[in-house]
Amino acid sequence: MTAKKAVMALLFLLVFAAEAFAAAEGAAHDAGPGWLSPMQIARIFNAAVLVGLLVYLLKGRLVNFFAERSAQIQKDLADAKMQKEQAEALIAEYKTKISGMEAEIERMRGELRKTAEVESDKIISNADRMAVTMLESAKMAAEQEIRKAKTELRNEAVQLAVQLAESLIREKINEDDRKKLVEDYFVKVGGMK
After folding, report:
1. Contact 142, 134 (CB under 8 A)
2. What is the pLDDT of residues 128-138, one digit of tens each?
3. Which residues have a Cβ under 8 Å from the Cβ of 147 and sit 6 or more positions away?
């Protein structure tokens, strides 16, 4: 049955029910107490007819609606259950990863400690070698400065000795001694030729 026919039937039923109510109104005063009045009977009848007509007309649609709604609810429940299971699996995976990360962090800390100790030992060893090298360089530089100073002192001592000898010779050698030295020198140079 189409929706148009259903609406028309419903309108007809309402018009018929209104006429029945109006007729029953006058007869309601004739009934005695304890009995159902004709108006009440008409109302019950009209309500029953209306409910029966609605069930008849909308039965297929109501069944389909409730079937579809039930299927949708079942599907939504299944989806929610699947999403819950996926979320629980994801939580379990993250918990596993987190516990693995804690172990990894501890392993990395241990490696960093070892590396830091090795680097510290290398730095100390290099510092010790540099200190020894610096001491040796300082000793060599000091020894070189001492040799240089000794050489300069010797040169100064020789120059002073030469100057002193010159001044002594000048003071003690007279003119005769000078002539004799020059003659001896020529004799030696002349004998060498």
Report:
1. no
2. 888 888 888 88
3. none
Q: Which two tokens stand for residue 30?
A: 């004739």
Q: For helices 3-27 and 38-172, what crossing angle results, to 10°?
A: 130
d(CA 187, CA 190): 5
CA separation for the pair 53, 46 (Å, rounded): 10
Segments of the chain with pLDDT less than 70? 1-34, 191-193
pLDDT at 73: 93
DSSP sequence for the chain: --HHHHHHHHHHHHHHHHHHHHHHHHHTTTSPTTSPPHHHHHHHHHHHHHHHHHHHHHHHHHHHHHHHHHHHHHHHHHHHHHHHHHHHHHHHHHHHHHHHHHHHHHHHHHHHHHHHHHHHHHHHHHHHHHHHHHHHHHHHHHHHHHHHHHHHHHHHHHHHHHHHHHHHHHHH--HHHHHHHHHHHHHHHHHH-
